[in-house]
Amino acid sequence: MKTKPLLFSIAVFLYTSCFAQKTVDENKKKNVFLETLLKQDTTFYNKYFGKNNTYEIQIIYTKVDRTRGNSPIFSTYLFQEDSLNYFYPASTVKLPVAVLALEKLHLLEKRKLNKYTIMQNDSAYAGQTRMYQDKTTKQGFPTVADHIKKMLIYSDNNAFNRLYEFLGPEYINKRLKTLGYNQVNIRHRLSTPFTVTQNSYTNPVVFLKKNGDTVYYKPLKKDHLYFDKVSLKKGVGYYDNDSLIMSPKDFNVKSKFGISNQHEFLKKLMFPKVNASNSKLLLASSDYKFLYKYMSMLPRESGYGKPVNSYKDSRVKYFMFGNSDVKIPDYIKIFNKAGAAYGFLVDNAYIIDLKNKIEFFVSAVINVNNNQIYDDNNYAYETDGLPFFEKLGQIIYDYELQRPRKKLPNLKAFCF
Fold first, then answer.
1. Which residues have a Cβ under 8 Å from the Cβ of 213 and sit 6 or more positions away?
2. How do residues 99-108 score in pLDDT, each as one tens digit?
3. Which of 11, 172, 177, 337 has its CA 20 to 30 A from that of 48?
4. Separation between Cα atoms, residue 378 and residue 148, nearest integer Å
5. How far is Cα 188 from Cα 197, in angstroms, rounded to an integer?
6. 403 DSSP assignment
7. Which domains are assigned to the chain?
8. Given this model, what pLDDT does residue 148 score?
């Protein structure tokens, strides 16, 4: 009587074991593929992946092939990706906050406001500052649209802080988890000395008509901040004001945004119709076009703020161009969000070449805090970090140039 159930159980066990083994083998192949590609440049590989480095590099690369109908087919390869190895995400948190701000406006559409409505941040708690005007904009007032432009083109921290104050950390993190991102927790403003308590309070924010009438008002709000149960300690020491503390720095109260979550979020943003029913972003087609335009825009193309020649093309385009002075060719478009802080350099990008009809995703992080002392501003961004991104981008780009494709992509959706 028990033979059939026993045989069935054995069959299920064998099937699942074989399936699990097949998955492990496939994952090994994906890691080996990227490692083999990197080893083609021996000097580069030995410097960044040799035995005596502390760079903590993680890389994710996705090939994009196309069907006859131009639908994307993704093949993703990992190298040293480790969700348990914490890194500080720096300005990469700006991209999801920009997206969520646009989403939030759609939820408030009945109030007759949009990304071009005047937005003013007031102050009502210790440390908070007001922002009523913005002389860098044509209208002289801040808007969600202008904050997002500055975040994406120049990586402006104040613009991020204003949208953080509009959304609140509790809303941000709950929404991202609903979308399926479990390696992200955005907990604080950027480049401010705020305490945990201060970051839990977000400013009153008002949206106004041009005649001054209130369209929507968000009062002072206290959010609950969720922190990791385990400490996230890095390095051997850190500075507290002018005092050197010889013990690891605990990043427990800092934001996190894992490299795989960054990579998948960017893929979802660039190709929203792929698995659209699964945690769909609440954006209109005009929102996607707006984001694509400013994600790929170079400072010299923007007309914002400083003179057009004040910034290099490579200012926030780490892959392929690092810290070079060269002008990025018009046919190469990089849709990305990069960040740098505490010695961590991070970038996640969708790169297209309109002339050669190639496209790919690549995300990476490197730790160039070589002395492992935090807050001393002694980080090897120029000598180690940016050259790494430049060379890594070139290696993948060169591979993409020569690899065969059955169908060339139609990239018109990303032309501006």
1. none
2. 999 999 999 9
3. 337
4. 30
5. 10
6. S
7. 29-414 (3.40.710.10)
8. 98
- CA separation (Å) from 3 to 15, 42, 319? 18, 58, 60
Question: Which tens digits make up the pLDDT trace of 353-375?
Answer: 999 999 999 999 999 999 999 99
Over 50: is that where the pLDDT of 22 sits? no
Task: Annotate 301-338 with three-state secondary structure.
Answer: HHCCCCCHHHCCCCCCCCCCCCCCCCCCCCCEEEEEEE
pLDDT band at 306 (very low <50, low <70, confident <90, very high): low
Round to whole Å and give the CA distance between 335 and 190: 22
Q: Please say if the pLDDT value at position 342 is more than 80.
A: yes
Please tell me the distance from the alpha carbon of residue 360 to that of residue 63, in angstroms, as a whole number.
5
Give the list of residues 6+ apart from residue 11 with CB closer than 8 angstroms, or none: none
Q: For 134, how many CA atoms within 13 A lie in the half-sphere containing its CB? A: 22
**Angle 42-49/386-402 helices, nearest 10 degrees?**
140
Indicate the angle between helix axes 3-38 and 386-402, nearest 10 degrees. Answer: 110
Q: 10 Å Cβ neighbour count for 225?
A: 17
Q: The pTM is what?
A: 0.92
**C-alpha torsion 121→125→126→130, nearest 10:** 20
